[in-house]
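In this section we walk through a basic example: taking a raw amino acid sequence and producing a predicted 3D structure, encoded as discrete structure tokens. The instruction is simple. Fold the sequence below.
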Amino acid sequence: MDEPWDILRVLTATFSELAIEYMIVDSTAMRAYVPGRSTFDTDVLVKMTSDQLEALIKRFGEDWYLDAETARKGLAERRMFNAIHYKTSWKLDLIPLKDDEFHQTEFARRREDAIGDVSCYVQAPEDLVLSKLQWAAKGGSSRQVEDVRSLFVAGVPMDEAYVKSWSTRLGLDKLLVEARNG
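The resulting token sequence is shown next.
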């Protein structure tokens, strides 16, 4: 298996088969826009029902470690849970979609793009900027701001008015200036 592309291919096919709406986010999503840094997991925002989760648990079967009770509780409480591919140790962080306005808007703006040679739904670059700045504001590593800076340096086209509007609403203006000015 040519991880992470083969895993991503399996994941997107499985989600399609089970009609689970998803969006690749964070560092893996960055690879759709700029050369990626190494990462040992894939973060996926998911919009799924309890029945879809049960089907996913069954579908992953013996190839993946996915604690059913933790996953059910995570989905019910809209908290991240993960699955680990036994053969490769690749980890998926599955993040249930939250009800707040930003996350709903972000999910609605997802786009079909390619990561490596895998066609999949990814976070729009504007929302990638905002979500990474949110992580930085919550005490995440300085790497989040560096990732945002790399998107700006690469000249990834963005809706600047959208970024500014949400940055102000989310209280991220100071971090946005830091990312832009390096």
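Looking at the output, two observations stand out. Residues 125 and 157 are 8 Å apart (CA to CA). The domain at 1-123 is CATH 3.30.460 (Beta Polymerase; domain 2). In the next section we compare this with other chains.
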